[in-house]
């Protein structure tokens, strides 16, 4: 079924309003051929392979002193604040924890509503080809880029404060989001000059996991929105920011449903308004990245919009298929929810409710947050269908999936147990 084109407001770069002028050479220090020759940027080169759950993990744990990458992100971000590159002061936005069991977080961010212009893209297709005529990250100003981020050649962390940009090898960039949701809000843009559309692959997701691990900060999370799940630019990117509070989704109970041959544990969320899968563990970072990547690729290939949250310094990943934009297009979302103009992407689904109207902020309640997120979630039946597809895709990739119950902490009544992938056992893990 063909759905109407959805207008989604977004401005992540100060140059989006000039995107048409940028096409033929702009002379304004962008990242295209007209300006990139001879340009230099800081380069952070991370250690390639770090075990998850192995002997080296404590060296990369969240309890370490401030990591260099962490200080680099914040130092460069603060520099751009001083240079006046952001569209508003996000530190002036009101924030509160909503009373209730889950601790949803509400932020009043009127700047993301009042100072934006709409961008058009289709919501009925998760995979869409890259369109050079649309705004993309090669059109941002070089001053909006903080540094290059890539694997080290010698297996050790390295930093070069003024490195040349190797366009032919398409480096990955970390840039500011000029309409920030929180302090330190940045964009990770893998292999920027390849102009990849917004679709996860194995290499890009492993890169995002490395960033989470290298930052070594439990308050730094990365998020991903697919097309149809409120991604606003069809150029591959992840978002990340700092929030010194636990997200409600991180506190939700989970039930283990499988363990893969690579040591990755897959669970399902319980007692949360949005149904989703949780990935943890793995013998190596690649094991974890590959399992999540295969699941994401499966959803993309089956045209299922989804969001991803990378949490706990890369140790825990939430995969959240959703259908809110589809319901909007079909007229199945109440007018009351539509009036809030909240587009529930990865941060909202995780429990950080970014509200655009003072009225909604003042009336924020756990019931209202739950009501919105419940509209995001797939039905139980559809979620089981999608879960089965995901397990089939992962098993085809691994060739040796070993579902097993890990630790039975408590019994769940049979009335609450959904049908699972054949052969898998279930057990509950309470946080």
Tell me what you see in this structure:
InterPro entries: GDPGP (IPR026506), GDPGP1_C (IPR058865), GDPGP1_N (IPR058866). One of its GO terms (cellular component) is cytoplasm. Belongs to the GDPGP1 family. Keywords: Cytoplasm, Guanine-nucleotide releasing factor, Hydrolase, Nucleotide-binding, Nucleotidyltransferase, Transferase. By secondary structure, the chain is an alpha+beta fold. The chain has one domain: ATP adenylyltransferase (HIT family, subunit A, 2-Layer Sandwich), CATH 3.30.428. It is built from 13 helices and 18 strands. It has helices at residues 19-22, 33-36, 68-82, 111-114, 202-215, 248-251, 285-301, 324-329, 335-339, 346-350, 358-362, 366-376, 380-398, and strands at 6-9, 40-46, 94-97, 105-108, 118-121, 145-151, 158-164, 173-176, 186-189, 220-225, 238-242, 254-259, 264-269, 277-281, 306-311, 316-321, 352-355, 427-429. The strands form three sheets. It has a 13-stranded mixed β-sheet with strand order 7-2-6-8-9-11-10-15-16-14-13-12-18. The longest helix has 19 residues, at 380-398. The radius of gyration is 21 Å and the shape is globular. The protein starts with 5 loop residues before the first strand and ends with a strand. Mean pLDDT is 85; it is low at 1-8, 20-25, 50-61, 114-119 and 400-430.
